[in-house]
Design brief:
The chain has 462 residues and is an alpha+beta fold. The protein has three domains: 124 residues, Phosphorylase Kinase, domain 1 (2-Layer Sandwich); 182 residues, Transferase(Phosphotransferase) domain 1 (Transferase(Phosphotransferase), domain 1, Orthogonal Bundle); 123 residues, Jelly Rolls (Sandwich), CATH 2.60.120. It contains 15 helices and 18 strands. The strands form five sheets. It has a five-stranded antiparallel sheet. The protein has a four-stranded antiparallel sheet with strand order 11-18-13-16. Strands 12-17-14-15 form a four-stranded antiparallel sheet, with no helix packed on it. It is elongated.
Length: 462
């Protein structure tokens, strides 16, 4: 009889798969999980091929018990008897299963098929990769709304990575191709095959599952210094240099910075004609500023956020994902979509009597509001950073009621009537109310001016 090839005993997989409950811990009873009674081949019906990597194959299946389509990731046939490869595969399934988060695809089962090959099933995500989403819109013609939507996807990925870090897991392979965007706006961070548990991580009681995973892994997986994992186009320098022990949360911050960089430029951080040149730049963490890679204007503040995350020195990056996310959120709330204009001291920004359709917010410097009364300049108000002027012109067709002059060098955000319509979604009736309110404010202001003029005349007569 021909001796069959050695396979990993199912008992070994069971021992990895089982995590003790509180009762198990107290009684020290070892409970082996039962294998499904229905044969895998009868329960899981094979569907379309989805994709293949170096270590695994992904296929669509139909679970006859759940009456649901799922994705099945199986270890590649040539790796089925490689104990180290099987160990990594099991660890990927277990780590992903423990990361119970809306932006991480859920894992349903880890088992063996009828040929004895490892597989795990997970939610079938229908949609596109983030790379495909970005490619649909030319960055030079991208609208403010489209950039906003892309950044919302990025923020959801930040949530997923931050959650993984709270469980002691580093993803290590962050890139747009590993992000799936579903048909209804779902966002999933995929492919945890290179994920790594932090050696020094000490979980809290609520993270007991990850503690068991870290302490009871039957396959003692380790990496030697100098081994390079991940995609070179998006690698942090410590990854490219193979410094395994230097990899931590800030390595994933670099990966998120690389995704943000691609949102801005549609290019990865390292772009060269040869692989050798790309590797050389990755080793040094040499990333060109986004503005130098495109032929159009980019939001300066957002470029600065990306470059901070992509700093070659881990200590100079964001210390955690939450800080990176906060800066992106603040950018979105900063009026980034509005044009900026700069005025020198003495420049007239708004002139009394002229028609205008724009309002302004002062971001730098000081302004003076004045009127000409009987040919004399009468200062009405002094304005500083954060103050608004010209707002009534957005809602009415009347001429400007006063002039605004720059006292020193002034920078303003220019907000047009169209901006108000787009952001507020002004309907017909809301527009009528806003216009009526503006008209009444102008009339009230004119009456005040007229009253001041009459009081002045009375004073002179007396």
């Amino acid at each position: 009889m021909t001796k069959s090839k050695a396979r990993i005993p199912i008992s070994r997989i069971r021992s990895i798969k089982h995590w003790p409950t509180e009762l198990d811990r107290e009684t020290n009873v070892r409970v082996e999980p039962c294998m499904p009674q229905t044969q895998t081949s009868k329960r899981l019906l094979l569907g379309n091929h989805i994709g293949r990597g170096g270590m695994s194959v992904v296929e669509e299946i139909f679970d006859a018990n759940l009456l649901k389509k799922l994705a099945r990731k199986s270890i590649a046939p040539e790796k089925a008897h490689d104990e180290e490869a099987c160990g990594h595969f099991i660890e990927e399934a277990q780590i992903t299963a423990q990361l119970d988060h809306p932006n991480i695809v859920p894992v349903h089962e880890l088992s063996l098929d009828d040929q004895g090959r490892l597989f795990f099933t997970m939610k079938m995500v229908r949609g596109k990769t983030f790379s495909d989403v970005l490619a649909q819109v030319d960055y030079r013609e991208r609208s403010e709304k489209q950039l906003f939507e892309q950044l919302q996807i990025f923020l959801k990925v930040c949530d997923a990575v931050a959650f993984a870090h709270s469980r002691g897991v580093i993803h290590r392979d962050l890139k747009p191709d590993n992000i799936m965007v579903g048909e209804f706006g779902e966002v999933y961070l995929m492919d945890w095959g290179l994920a790594r548990l932090k050696q020094w991580w000490r979980p809290s009681k609520k993270d007991r599952e990850m503690s068991v995973l870290a302490d009871r892994r039957r396959f003692q997986l380790s990496e030697e210094e100098g081994i390079v994992n991940a995609t070179i186009l998006y690698m942090a320098p410590e990854q490219a240099q193979g410094k395994v022990e230097a990899i931590d949360e800030r390595t994933d911050v670099f990966g998120l910075g690389a995704i943000l960089y691609e949102v801005l430029t549609h290019l990865p951080p390292y772009v060269e004609e040869s692989t050798k040149a790309i590797v050389s730049r990755a080793l040094l963490g040499d990333v060109y500023p986004p503005q130098e890679m495109v032929d159009c204007d980019l939001p300066e503040r957002l470029c600065g956020i990306a470059m901070k995350a992509l700093n070659r020195e881990p200590s100079k990056r964001y210390s955690c994902v939450a800080d990176l996310k906060q800066d992106v959120e603040q950018f979105l709330q900063s009026g980034w979509q509005f044009a900026r204009r700069v005025f020198e001291p003495g420049d007239l920004i708004v002139e009394e009597g002229r028609r205008g359709r724009d309002a302004y917010v002062i971001t730098v410097g000081r302004c003076q509001v004045f009127r000409k009364i009987d040919g004399k300049k009468v200062v009405l108000e002094n304005l500083g950073v954060g103050d608004v002027f010209g707002e009534l012109a957005v809602f009415t067709k009347r001429p400007r009621a006063a002039s605004v002059e720059a006292v020193d060098k002034v920078t303003v955000m220019e907000i047009t009537q169209q901006n108000f319509r787009d952001d507020l979604g002004m309907s017909f009736w809301l527009g009528l109310f806003a216009k009526a309110l503006g008209e009444r404010l102008i009339e009230a202001d004119n009456r005040v001016v007229e009253l001041e003029r009459k009081l002045k005349q009375l004073g002179e007569e007396c």
